[in-house]
Write the C-alpha cells for this entry.
Amino acid sequence: MRISPAPFSLRFSLIPFRGALVVGLLALGSCGEGEDQGCGGPFCVIPPGRPEATRLRSASGNGQTGAPGRELQDPLAVLVTDGEDRPIPDVQVTFMVDPASGNLSAPSVRSDYQGRAEVTWTLGPALGPQTVVAVATGELGAPLDGSPLTLTAQGDWPLPARLVLQQAPSGSTQNGSPLERQPVVVALDANGDPVPEVNVTAAIMAGGGELHGTTLVSTDAAGRATYTDLAILGVAGTRALGFSVTEPPLETLFATVEVRAGASSQLVGNQPLVYEATVNSPVSPSPSVVVRDDAGNPVPGVAVTFAADLDASVSPASLTTDELGVAQVTSWTVGRAAGVRYSLSAQVESSGGAPVVFFADAKAGAAGKLEITVQPSATARSGTPLDRQPVIRVVDQLGNPAPQAGVTITATLSSGPSGSLQNASATTNGVGRASFRGLTLSGLVGNYRLSFSAPSLEGVTSSSISLAAATPSRLAVVRQPSAAGRSRVPLSVQPTVQLQDARGNPVAQAGVEVVASLASGGGTLGGGSRAVTGSDGRATYADLTITGSPGARTLRFTSASPATSVVSSPVTLPAVATVAVVTAPSSPVVVGSTLTDAVRWSLTDAGGQPVPDAPAGISASPGNSVDPVSTSSDESGMVELQSWTVSQTAGEHSVELGVADAPISRVIIAAVAGTASRLQKISGDGQSAPVNSQLPEPLVVRVVDEFGNGASGVTVQWRTCEGIGDYDAVTDVGGYASAFQDTGPEPGTFCGMASSAGLADSPVQFSFTATAAEGSVRALRRESGVRSRPSAPRAPDR
C-alpha cells in the first residue's frame, strides 16, 4: 500500500529517543503543487510489499497412536508461514474428517500469533489408520503450498497397566459346582481407562486342585472380563484364584475362595461291617457310614436313612451327616431269634445308589436274660431325668429269678427319632436287681424305646416313652435373611427366629422378646429390630433394613430369657460395578470460578440397581479445589460434587471420582481467561534490519486477565509512537497479537507501539534500528533536517 504525498510538507526537528534521533514536527509548509517531490515524514511513508501466507505444513500431533473412540493425547497442529518461514497469524484453516475417522473439536481454526492452528482429535471406533485433511488459502483464494495437508493417526488399543477386581468370586463354593458369584475383572490403562480385547487368564495359584470352566476371557468394550462357569474341583480348603495378563505381564490379581465338599457321590460303611451280638441286644460299636464327594471330601448335611430287618430295631432311622460326613446310629438292636443273621441297610435319601449293608449274627444268652420289673415313665421332658426310673433283674430262660450281683446293665436307645441317654448304666445287687438313678433321655421330640443289655444275657426292650421338648435354652434362625440385599431397602426375605431347647426341639412359648442387631460388617440396622415370639415360639421380623457400604453383614438375634443369642448367615450388599456421569458443568468456564452442584454421578451394581452408601473419594487436578473430597452415595446411588473452585490457570482441568472395585470416572472442563486486565510486551523489541526491509521477527504483545491468562478476542491497535497507522489486530486464543514492521528508507532508531483501551500498562513501545546499506551513508535531507520514516506496524498478508 502507498500513501500518496499530500500537497504540503512537514518540518521536523531531531529529538533524542533512547539514545537516537527522533524526528519531531516543527512546522507545516508547502510541499509543492501536487507534484511528488519526494517529501518525507510520518505522513509520507511508502511501505514495502506485504509478506503473504504461502505455506501450510504439519507442526505437531501427526502420526500418533491412540485408542479407538478416545481423544488423542496431543492436539493436531498445523503451521501457516510465509515464504521465509515466518509464522502468519489469523489465517483460517479448515479441518475435514470422515465419520469413520472420528470427530474434531472444531471444523475450522484461525492461526495464532505463532502461525499455529490446532484441534483435538477423537478417533473413530475402528482399529487401524485414520485421517484428517487440513486446507488453507491465501489472500487471493489460492491454496497454500502443502494444502490440502493429510494428517494421520493409528487406532490401536493401549496396553493394559493394571487389573481391578470389579466383582470378587463367591467367598465359598461347593467342590465341582460353578461359583455362585462369578468374578469380573477390569483391565485399565495407565490413565485409568478401560482396555478392550485383553486376554485375562484365571488359575488356581495356591491350594491345589483343578479350575474348570472357561479360564481365558477377553475384555469387552468396557474393559471387563466376565467369567461365567468357573468351578473348583479338589479337596476342601482355601484356594487363591489368580487373574493375570501375559501381554504385557501385569501383577497378578488374587481372590480367595473357600472350597466346601461338593454333592454327595459315594456312601461308604465304616468298619466293622459284620457283627456278633446277643439276641435282643445292641451291637457294639454302633454302625456308621461316611458320605463323600467326587474328590473324596466328606460331605456334611446329607440325609441318610437306616432300615433294620426282621424284628431288629435301629435308632434313629434317619439322620444327617456331621461335619466329617459321618452318620452314626445310636443303636442297632438285633431281634430275639438266635442263629439268625440280621441286616441293617444305609442309603442316602436323595440318591438311587446302592446301599451300604451291615450284618449281625445273633446268639443266645449264656445264662439267662434280663427282665424289666419297673417300666420307665411313659412321658418325659428332654434333658430331665425320668420321673419313674426303670428297674431290671436277671432271670433264667424260664423267667425265674436268678440272683447275680455285680452285673452291669446298660440302657441304649432301641428306637426313636434321635437322642441320647445320660446315667445309662446300673449294677445288680445281691438279689439280681439293678435300679437306675438319674436316667435321662435327651433328643428330638417323639416316641422312644429303651433297650437294656448285659454281657452274655438276652436283652429286653422297654415300653414306649413320649419325649417332649425341654424349657427353652437357645435361639435358632429357622428362616435366614436374604443372601443379597440393598442398603436402605428392607430385606426381601425377613428372618424368623425359633425358641429351642438344648437339643434343638422347637419350644412353643409366647412372649419372649428377641432383639436384632448387626453382628459384623458395620453400618446400621433399621426397621423394627424387636420381635416377640408367638404361641409357636417364633419371632418374625417385618422390615429389617441394613444401611451401609457394600460388603457382607451378619445379624445377631438376642433374648434375655433365655439369655442366649444366634447369628444369621451373611447378607451381602452389592459392590459398585458402574459409575456414570449424570450431570456435568458446561464448558468452558472462567478461571477462578466456583461451580456449585458441579457434578453428579450415578453408582449402580452389576444388575443395574442403585448402590446407596458406597464410600467415594473425589480429587481434582492441580490448582483446583473440590468439596467434599470424601463422601458416600445417597439413597438413590447418587454422588454429588457440591463445589468446584476452578484453577486460576486457563486450560483443561478435571475432577475424578474413585469408588472401590469400580473404574475411575473423570469429568473434564476447559477454563478460559477472565476479563482482559493488562497488556504485556512479549517479543520483538530491540531488533535491527537494513533499510527498505522488514524486521526479522514480528512484534508480539499479549493481553492477560488478572491471573496472567491470555485473553482472546481483544482489539490491539498497532501504531508508530507518534500514533500513525491503522492496523488493528484481535488477540488469538492465547491472548497474543502480533505485527510485522518495515524499516523504511532511512537509517536510524525508531519507535512503534501497541495499545488497547482500558488495559494496564497500555501502550507498550518497541524500539528498532534501521541500518544503512553497506557502503552507503545518507545525510539529512536538505537543511531542514527532515528524513523519511518507516511505516507503522502492520498486519501480515494472508
Observations:
- The two ends are 15 Å apart (CA to CA).
- The first strand starts at residue 9 and ends at 17.
